[in-house]
Amino acid sequence: MIPGISSRKRFSDLSEQEILALAISSEEDDARIYRQYAERLRSDFPASAKVFDGMAEEEDTHRRRLIDLHKKRFGEVIPLIRREHVSGYYARRPVWLVENLGLDRMREEAEAMEKQAERFYRMAAERATDADTRKLLGDLAAAEAGHADKADQLEEKHLDSSARGEEDRAAHRQFVLTWVQPGLAGLMDGSVSTLAPIFAVAFATQDTHTTFLVGLAASIGAGISMGFTEAASDDGQLSGRGSPVKRGFASGIMTTLGGLGHALPYLIPDFWTATTIAIIVVFIELWSIAWIQNRYMDTPFLRATFQVVVGGALVLAAGVVIGAG
Protein backbone atom coordinates (compact mmCIF):
# COMPACT_ATOMS: atom_id res chain seq x y z
CA MET A 1 0.00 0.00 0.00
CA ILE A 2 1.31 3.43 -0.95
CA PRO A 3 1.20 5.87 2.02
CA GLY A 4 -1.63 8.36 1.69
CA ILE A 5 -3.50 6.23 -0.87
CA SER A 6 -6.66 4.52 0.39
CA SER A 7 -6.75 0.74 -0.02
CA ARG A 8 -10.56 0.72 0.04
CA LYS A 9 -12.55 0.24 -3.14
CA ARG A 10 -15.04 2.79 -4.35
CA PHE A 11 -18.64 1.65 -4.48
CA SER A 12 -18.81 2.52 -8.17
CA ASP A 13 -15.95 0.08 -8.86
CA LEU A 14 -17.63 -2.94 -7.25
CA SER A 15 -18.77 -5.78 -9.47
CA GLU A 16 -22.28 -7.18 -9.08
CA GLN A 17 -20.83 -10.19 -7.27
CA GLU A 18 -19.03 -7.90 -4.83
CA ILE A 19 -22.22 -5.88 -4.30
CA LEU A 20 -24.08 -9.06 -3.39
CA ALA A 21 -21.25 -10.13 -1.09
CA LEU A 22 -21.27 -6.72 0.58
CA ALA A 23 -25.03 -6.92 1.07
CA ILE A 24 -24.70 -10.40 2.61
CA SER A 25 -22.04 -9.31 5.10
CA SER A 26 -24.01 -6.16 5.94
CA GLU A 27 -27.16 -8.17 6.68
CA GLU A 28 -25.11 -10.51 8.89
CA ASP A 29 -23.70 -7.53 10.82
CA ASP A 30 -27.10 -5.89 11.25
CA ALA A 31 -28.70 -9.11 12.50
CA ARG A 32 -25.86 -9.49 14.98
CA ILE A 33 -26.32 -5.91 16.19
CA TYR A 34 -30.05 -6.39 16.73
CA ARG A 35 -29.40 -9.60 18.67
CA GLN A 36 -26.90 -7.81 20.89
CA TYR A 37 -29.48 -5.12 21.56
CA ALA A 38 -31.99 -7.83 22.40
CA GLU A 39 -29.62 -9.54 24.83
CA ARG A 40 -28.77 -6.24 26.46
CA LEU A 41 -32.49 -5.51 26.98
CA ARG A 42 -33.81 -8.97 27.76
CA SER A 43 -33.67 -8.84 31.55
CA ASP A 44 -35.05 -5.33 32.04
CA PHE A 45 -37.11 -4.79 28.86
CA PRO A 46 -38.24 -8.23 27.63
CA ALA A 47 -40.92 -6.90 25.27
CA SER A 48 -38.47 -4.62 23.44
CA ALA A 49 -35.98 -7.51 23.32
CA LYS A 50 -38.55 -9.55 21.38
CA VAL A 51 -38.96 -6.67 18.92
CA PHE A 52 -35.22 -6.67 18.22
CA ASP A 53 -35.25 -10.46 17.97
CA GLY A 54 -37.89 -10.14 15.27
CA MET A 55 -35.85 -7.53 13.41
CA ALA A 56 -32.80 -9.80 13.52
CA GLU A 57 -34.86 -12.64 12.03
CA GLU A 58 -35.96 -10.30 9.23
CA GLU A 59 -32.30 -9.53 8.44
CA ASP A 60 -31.59 -13.28 8.40
CA THR A 61 -34.31 -13.71 5.79
CA HIS A 62 -32.73 -11.01 3.62
CA ARG A 63 -29.32 -12.66 3.96
CA ARG A 64 -30.65 -16.06 2.88
CA ARG A 65 -32.32 -14.55 -0.21
CA LEU A 66 -29.07 -12.82 -1.14
CA ILE A 67 -27.06 -16.01 -0.67
CA ASP A 68 -29.49 -17.99 -2.81
CA LEU A 69 -29.11 -15.44 -5.61
CA HIS A 70 -25.33 -15.47 -5.27
CA LYS A 71 -25.27 -19.26 -5.54
CA LYS A 72 -27.44 -19.10 -8.64
CA ARG A 73 -25.30 -16.51 -10.42
CA PHE A 74 -21.77 -16.91 -9.08
CA GLY A 75 -21.52 -20.18 -7.16
CA GLU A 76 -20.88 -21.20 -3.59
CA VAL A 77 -17.79 -19.07 -2.83
CA ILE A 78 -18.75 -15.60 -1.56
CA PRO A 79 -16.01 -12.93 -1.72
CA LEU A 80 -14.94 -11.51 1.63
CA ILE A 81 -15.93 -7.86 1.47
CA ARG A 82 -17.25 -5.80 4.33
CA ARG A 83 -18.26 -2.22 5.05
CA GLU A 84 -14.77 -1.16 6.03
CA HIS A 85 -13.45 -2.31 2.64
CA VAL A 86 -15.58 0.19 0.68
CA SER A 87 -14.83 3.89 0.54
CA GLY A 88 -17.74 6.09 1.59
CA TYR A 89 -19.90 3.15 2.65
CA TYR A 90 -22.03 3.77 5.72
CA ALA A 91 -20.58 2.60 9.02
CA ARG A 92 -22.32 1.38 12.13
CA ARG A 93 -21.67 2.95 15.51
CA PRO A 94 -20.01 0.62 18.01
CA VAL A 95 -22.63 -1.51 19.76
CA TRP A 96 -21.10 -0.84 23.17
CA LEU A 97 -21.58 2.89 22.67
CA VAL A 98 -25.25 2.67 21.68
CA GLU A 99 -26.33 0.02 24.17
CA ASN A 100 -24.84 2.02 27.01
CA LEU A 101 -27.03 4.98 26.08
CA GLY A 102 -30.30 3.23 26.79
CA LEU A 103 -33.49 1.94 25.23
CA ASP A 104 -34.55 5.08 23.32
CA ARG A 105 -31.08 5.40 21.80
CA MET A 106 -31.24 1.82 20.54
CA ARG A 107 -34.62 2.46 18.93
CA GLU A 108 -33.28 5.58 17.20
CA GLU A 109 -30.19 3.74 15.99
CA ALA A 110 -32.28 0.89 14.57
CA GLU A 111 -34.35 3.40 12.59
CA ALA A 112 -31.19 5.01 11.20
CA MET A 113 -29.80 1.58 10.28
CA GLU A 114 -32.87 0.77 8.21
CA LYS A 115 -32.70 4.08 6.34
CA GLN A 116 -29.01 3.54 5.51
CA ALA A 117 -29.70 0.01 4.29
CA GLU A 118 -32.57 1.23 2.11
CA ARG A 119 -30.30 3.84 0.47
CA PHE A 120 -27.65 1.19 -0.23
CA TYR A 121 -30.10 -1.21 -1.87
CA ARG A 122 -31.55 1.51 -4.06
CA MET A 123 -28.09 2.53 -5.27
CA ALA A 124 -27.12 -1.10 -5.81
CA ALA A 125 -30.32 -1.81 -7.76
CA GLU A 126 -29.61 1.11 -10.08
CA ARG A 127 -26.23 -0.41 -10.96
CA ALA A 128 -27.42 -3.98 -11.43
CA THR A 129 -27.76 -5.23 -15.02
CA ASP A 130 -29.07 -8.72 -14.26
CA ALA A 131 -32.89 -8.74 -14.01
CA ASP A 132 -33.06 -11.13 -11.04
CA THR A 133 -30.42 -9.16 -9.13
CA ARG A 134 -32.08 -5.86 -9.86
CA LYS A 135 -35.44 -7.22 -8.72
CA LEU A 136 -34.08 -8.65 -5.45
CA LEU A 137 -32.16 -5.49 -4.57
CA GLY A 138 -35.23 -3.40 -5.32
CA ASP A 139 -37.37 -5.70 -3.18
CA LEU A 140 -34.89 -5.42 -0.31
CA ALA A 141 -34.84 -1.63 -0.62
CA ALA A 142 -38.63 -1.66 -0.33
CA ALA A 143 -38.40 -4.08 2.61
CA GLU A 144 -35.93 -1.85 4.43
CA ALA A 145 -38.16 1.16 3.75
CA GLY A 146 -41.07 -0.82 5.18
CA HIS A 147 -39.21 -1.89 8.29
CA ALA A 148 -40.81 0.97 10.19
CA ASP A 149 -44.13 -0.78 9.50
CA LYS A 150 -42.54 -4.11 10.39
CA ALA A 151 -41.26 -2.67 13.66
CA ASP A 152 -44.73 -1.31 14.37
CA GLN A 153 -46.19 -4.78 13.75
CA LEU A 154 -43.65 -6.36 16.08
CA GLU A 155 -44.36 -3.72 18.71
CA GLU A 156 -48.09 -4.36 18.42
CA LYS A 157 -47.39 -8.06 18.93
CA HIS A 158 -44.85 -7.84 21.74
CA LEU A 159 -45.04 -4.29 23.04
CA ASP A 160 -48.57 -3.06 23.73
CA SER A 161 -49.21 0.33 25.29
CA SER A 162 -49.11 -1.11 28.80
CA ALA A 163 -45.78 -2.87 28.25
CA ARG A 164 -44.35 0.17 26.46
CA GLY A 165 -45.35 2.46 29.30
CA GLU A 166 -43.90 0.08 31.86
CA GLU A 167 -40.62 -0.18 29.96
CA ASP A 168 -40.42 3.59 29.51
CA ARG A 169 -40.91 4.08 33.23
CA ALA A 170 -38.27 1.45 33.97
CA ALA A 171 -35.85 3.12 31.54
CA HIS A 172 -36.45 6.52 33.17
CA ARG A 173 -35.95 5.03 36.61
CA GLN A 174 -32.71 3.38 35.50
CA PHE A 175 -31.49 6.66 34.00
CA VAL A 176 -32.19 8.45 37.26
CA LEU A 177 -30.51 5.78 39.40
CA THR A 178 -27.43 5.40 37.19
CA TRP A 179 -26.78 8.97 36.03
CA VAL A 180 -28.96 11.60 37.71
CA GLN A 181 -28.76 10.49 41.32
CA PRO A 182 -24.96 10.06 41.56
CA GLY A 183 -24.42 13.10 39.33
CA LEU A 184 -26.67 15.22 41.54
CA ALA A 185 -24.92 13.99 44.68
CA GLY A 186 -21.59 14.91 43.10
CA LEU A 187 -22.80 18.34 42.00
CA MET A 188 -24.11 19.06 45.48
CA ASP A 189 -20.91 17.91 47.11
CA GLY A 190 -18.68 19.78 44.68
CA SER A 191 -20.70 22.98 44.83
CA VAL A 192 -21.33 23.13 48.58
CA SER A 193 -18.32 21.44 50.18
CA THR A 194 -15.81 23.62 48.32
CA LEU A 195 -17.55 26.90 49.12
CA ALA A 196 -16.07 27.42 52.58
CA PRO A 197 -12.40 26.68 51.73
CA ILE A 198 -12.42 28.62 48.45
CA PHE A 199 -14.03 31.77 49.87
CA ALA A 200 -12.07 31.51 53.13
CA VAL A 201 -8.82 31.54 51.15
CA ALA A 202 -10.14 34.28 48.87
CA PHE A 203 -10.95 36.69 51.71
CA ALA A 204 -7.92 35.70 53.80
CA THR A 205 -5.39 36.34 51.03
CA GLN A 206 -7.28 38.43 48.45
CA ASP A 207 -4.93 36.71 46.00
CA THR A 208 -6.89 35.42 43.00
CA HIS A 209 -4.11 33.09 41.79
CA THR A 210 -3.79 31.35 45.16
CA THR A 211 -7.58 31.11 45.44
CA PHE A 212 -7.83 29.54 42.00
CA LEU A 213 -5.15 26.95 42.82
CA VAL A 214 -6.90 26.02 46.07
CA GLY A 215 -10.24 25.77 44.26
CA LEU A 216 -8.74 23.66 41.47
CA ALA A 217 -7.09 21.28 43.93
CA ALA A 218 -10.22 21.02 46.08
CA SER A 219 -12.46 20.38 43.06
CA ILE A 220 -10.28 17.73 41.45
CA GLY A 221 -9.55 16.04 44.78
CA ALA A 222 -13.23 15.96 45.70
CA GLY A 223 -14.13 14.63 42.23
CA ILE A 224 -11.66 11.77 42.45
CA SER A 225 -12.77 10.92 45.98
CA MET A 226 -16.50 11.01 45.15
CA GLY A 227 -16.02 9.03 41.95
CA PHE A 228 -14.15 6.18 43.61
CA THR A 229 -16.47 6.19 46.61
CA GLU A 230 -19.56 5.91 44.41
CA ALA A 231 -18.07 3.15 42.26
CA ALA A 232 -16.85 1.15 45.25
CA SER A 233 -19.94 1.56 47.43
CA ASP A 234 -22.36 -0.52 45.34
CA ASP A 235 -21.83 -2.90 42.41
CA GLY A 236 -25.42 -2.31 41.33
CA GLN A 237 -26.36 -5.99 41.19
CA LEU A 238 -28.77 -6.07 44.11
CA SER A 239 -29.74 -2.40 44.23
CA GLY A 240 -30.43 -2.18 40.49
CA ARG A 241 -28.59 1.16 40.32
CA GLY A 242 -26.64 0.15 37.24
CA SER A 243 -22.96 0.07 36.36
CA PRO A 244 -20.67 1.27 39.17
CA VAL A 245 -18.29 2.65 36.53
CA LYS A 246 -21.01 4.86 35.01
CA ARG A 247 -22.13 6.03 38.44
CA GLY A 248 -18.55 6.71 39.45
CA PHE A 249 -17.91 8.82 36.36
CA ALA A 250 -21.18 10.71 36.81
CA SER A 251 -20.46 11.48 40.44
CA GLY A 252 -16.77 12.32 39.97
CA ILE A 253 -17.23 14.57 36.94
CA MET A 254 -20.15 16.49 38.41
CA THR A 255 -18.31 16.94 41.72
CA THR A 256 -15.36 18.44 39.90
CA LEU A 257 -17.56 20.71 37.80
CA GLY A 258 -19.46 21.83 40.88
CA GLY A 259 -16.27 23.06 42.50
CA LEU A 260 -14.69 24.49 39.37
CA GLY A 261 -17.77 26.63 38.69
CA HIS A 262 -16.89 29.11 41.41
CA ALA A 263 -13.12 28.56 41.24
CA LEU A 264 -12.70 29.54 37.59
CA PRO A 265 -13.70 33.21 38.12
CA TYR A 266 -10.50 33.60 40.13
CA LEU A 267 -8.55 33.40 36.91
CA ILE A 268 -9.56 37.08 36.69
CA PRO A 269 -6.76 39.16 38.32
CA ASP A 270 -9.05 41.72 39.98
CA PHE A 271 -10.17 40.29 43.33
CA TRP A 272 -13.57 41.97 43.68
CA THR A 273 -14.57 41.32 40.07
CA ALA A 274 -13.62 37.65 40.43
CA THR A 275 -15.42 37.35 43.77
CA THR A 276 -18.60 38.99 42.51
CA ILE A 277 -18.75 36.64 39.51
CA ALA A 278 -17.96 33.64 41.73
CA ILE A 279 -20.85 34.48 44.08
CA ILE A 280 -23.23 34.82 41.12
CA VAL A 281 -22.04 31.43 39.83
CA VAL A 282 -22.62 29.89 43.26
CA PHE A 283 -26.27 30.91 43.29
CA ILE A 284 -26.72 29.64 39.71
CA GLU A 285 -25.26 26.31 40.81
CA LEU A 286 -27.50 26.11 43.86
CA TRP A 287 -30.67 26.97 41.91
CA SER A 288 -29.68 24.38 39.28
CA ILE A 289 -29.38 21.72 41.99
CA ALA A 290 -32.81 22.65 43.34
CA TRP A 291 -34.29 22.44 39.82
CA ILE A 292 -32.74 19.00 39.20
CA GLN A 293 -34.07 17.73 42.52
CA ASN A 294 -37.54 18.96 41.62
CA ARG A 295 -37.38 17.68 38.02
CA TYR A 296 -35.92 14.21 38.51
CA MET A 297 -36.20 13.40 42.22
CA ASP A 298 -39.75 14.70 42.71
CA THR A 299 -38.61 16.94 45.57
CA PRO A 300 -41.03 19.87 46.10
CA PHE A 301 -39.35 22.95 44.67
CA LEU A 302 -39.72 25.07 47.82
CA ARG A 303 -38.23 22.34 49.99
CA ALA A 304 -35.38 21.78 47.52
CA THR A 305 -34.75 25.53 47.42
CA PHE A 306 -34.66 25.78 51.20
CA GLN A 307 -32.36 22.78 51.59
CA VAL A 308 -29.90 23.69 48.87
CA VAL A 309 -29.94 27.45 48.39
CA VAL A 310 -30.28 28.41 52.04
CA GLY A 311 -27.81 25.73 53.14
CA GLY A 312 -25.31 26.72 50.46
CA ALA A 313 -25.66 30.39 51.34
CA LEU A 314 -24.85 29.58 54.98
CA VAL A 315 -21.72 27.65 53.94
CA LEU A 316 -20.68 30.54 51.69
CA ALA A 317 -21.17 33.02 54.52
CA ALA A 318 -19.15 30.82 56.87
CA GLY A 319 -16.24 30.78 54.42
CA VAL A 320 -16.37 34.58 53.99
CA VAL A 321 -16.51 35.20 57.75
CA ILE A 322 -13.65 32.82 58.50
CA GLY A 323 -11.51 34.26 55.72
CA ALA A 324 -12.21 37.86 56.61
CA GLY A 325 -11.53 37.23 60.27
How would you describe this structure to a colleague?
The protein has 12 helices and 2 strands; from the N terminus they run E-H-H-E-H-H-H-H-H-H-H-H-H-H. Residues 1-5 have low confidence and may be disordered. The protein folds into 2 domains: 9-159, Ferritin (Up-down Bundle); 168-324, no CATH class. It has helices at residues 16-41, 46-74, 95-99, 103-127, 131-145, 147-158, 161-193, 195-205, 208-233, 244-263, 271-296, 301-324, and strands at residues 9-10, 86-87. It starts with 8 loop residues before the first strand and ends with a helix. A two-stranded parallel sheet has the order 1-2. The chain is elongated, with a radius of gyration of 28 Å. By secondary structure, it is mainly alpha-helical.
Instruction: Please provide the ordered H/E string of secondary-structure elements.
Output: EHHEHHHHHHHHHH
Structural class: mainly alpha
Rg for CA atoms = 28 Å
Number of strands: 2
Number of helices: 12
How much β-strand is present in the residues? under 5%
Alpha-carbon distance between the two ends: 72 Å
Categorize the overall geometry.
elongated
- Please estimate the helix content: over 70%
Could you list the spans in which at least 5 consecutive residues all have pLDDT below 50?
1-5
Determine the mean pLDDT: 84
Tell me the number of structural domains.
2
What is the strand arrangement across the widest sheet? Answer: 1-2
Largest sheet: 2 strands, parallel
